[in-house]
Specification:
alpha/beta; 8-stranded mixed β-sheet; 5-stranded mixed β-sheet; 28% helix; binds magnesium ion
Length: 406
């Protein structure tokens, strides 16, 4: 085996009690498909060739649960014996870090035990960020695409928060080991929200890189239910499977066009893209979300977007089109169904879609509450032919697949 240039070690924090998900067991030990949540999480690191070792911090009462959970890895020497955590997560991290002094890692990836969907690509990207020797810590973050509101305790809206520059923090948060050990030791006793906050408090240079919307933290029963459904769809090796309910698959298509008018940006799939024109329309003229909305309504046989949101209604003037798409998705849920997949093609010469495509995909996934893998956004030109070719407007077509009770 080639010795890695940089010794990267994963520190998985699994000492929490986490009963919010119900079921009596701490959530990291709950079953997900054929294995525990923690086993899935550990596997993600052991499968990555840049990870030299994995240390797990557990609760002192969970020795037996832990042994069961990681039984499949008992012959893998990279999985170090567990250490016990402290009263708070921050104490657990510090104890985990201290337990690695003799191993002397270069980089440490501190991860939540209840995030079992970490991708190999994310691990690689975090480690690669340290090619810049000024970087002491790296956070994977997901840009907030929803409008953010601040409300008081009575639910009265106080302000709309500018979401520019706002990110949701994920794990693994990755650090130069010596620096974060020193930082954790220095702030011991102060309550800080996460390891990046510990690093910030000590003035370390921390950066953010693109996270992965699929890298969710399992917290509530609803998270487990949704994840189980996803596993049933994607993992045919799962053994402990209940018979699937009797669903019928339905498909709908949508098509929409909006013309250009003078302006300086267009909104596509909820993302604002600088352009030398804007799209004309009653709402925000988001042609992508309109086509998607019609596709979902089509699969339901529930009419079209104009039936639900009449353009004559002043209420929808300038409205953000995620309202329309969310409404269509809600109708699917009300029919006891679920949205399975959407595929969208944007047709225009300009603006160039490709640089924004992944952001659009993430935005649609967020709006429709779908995993990223169930959302496709594509683009094409019409070879300068027709109205899109003459850059008079943008067209969009979409297909949605849903499942409904038979
Ligand atoms: Mg429209």
């Amino acid at each position: 085996m080639v010795k890695p240039m940089v010794k990267s070690v994963a520190l998985i924090v699994a000492a929490g009690r986490g009963h919010r998900a119900g079921g009596g067991l701490p959530k990291q030990y709950r079953q997900l498909g054929d294995r525990s949540v923690l086993a899935h999480t550990v596997q993600r690191f052991l499968d990555h060739k840049a990870i030299a070792s994995v240390r797990i911090v557990i609760h002192g009462d969970d020795e037996a649960l832990y042994r069961d959970a990681v039984a499949a890895f008992k012959d893998d020497s990279r999985l170090l014996s567990p250490v016990h955590g402290g009263a708070e997560r921050q104490d657990s991290v510090r104890l985990g870090l201290e337990s690695l002094i003799a191993l002397s890692p270069d980089l440490i990836l501190i991860h939540d035990g209840a995030r079992p969907f970490l991708s190999a690509h994310q691990i690689s990207a975090l480690i690669a960020a340290f090619d810049d020797e000024n970087v002491a810590g790296v956070l994977p973050g997901v840009a907030i695409v929803d409008t953010v509101k601040r409300a008081d305790d009575d639910g009265r809206i106080k302000e709309t928060v500018d979401r520019q520059g706002l990110w949701r923090a994920q794990t693994p948060q990755c650090f130069r080991y010596d620096a974060i050990l020193k930082a954790h030791t220095a702030v011991s006793g102060q309550a800080l929200t996460d390891d990046i906050a510990v690093a910030e408090a000590q003035g370390l240079n921390v950066r953010i890189i693109e996270g992965d919307p699929d890298n969710i933290k399992l917290t509530t029963q609803a998270d487990f239910d949704q994840t189980e459904r996803h596993l049933m769809e994607t993992n045919s090796t799962s053994q402990s499977r209940e018979p699937l309910p009797s669903f019928v698959s339905k498909t709908g298509m949508g098509f929409d066009v909006h013309g250009f008018e003078p302006g300086d940006f267009v909104t596509l799939c909820g993302i604002e893209i600088p352009h030398d024109k804007r799209l004309a329309g009653h709402s925000d003229a988001d042609v992508g979300l309109h086509a998607l909305t019609d596709a979902i309504l089509g699969a339901l046989g529930a009419g079209d977007i104009g039936d639900h949101f009449p353009p004559t209604d002043e209420k929808w003037r300038g409205a953000p089109s995620n309202i329309f798409a969310e409404h269509a998705a809600k109708l699917v849920h009300e029919a006891q169904g679920q949205l399975v997949h959407v595929d969208l093609t944007l047709i225009c010469e300009r603006p160039k879609i490709k640089p924004h495509r992944e952001a659009m995909r993430a935005s649609v996934a967020k709006i429709l509450e779908l995993p990223l893998s169930s959302v496709s956004v594509k683009a094409t030109t019409t070879e300068k032919l027709g109205f899109t070719g003459r850059q008079e407007g943008i067209a969009a077509q979409a297909i949605a697949t849903i499942e409904l009770p038979r």
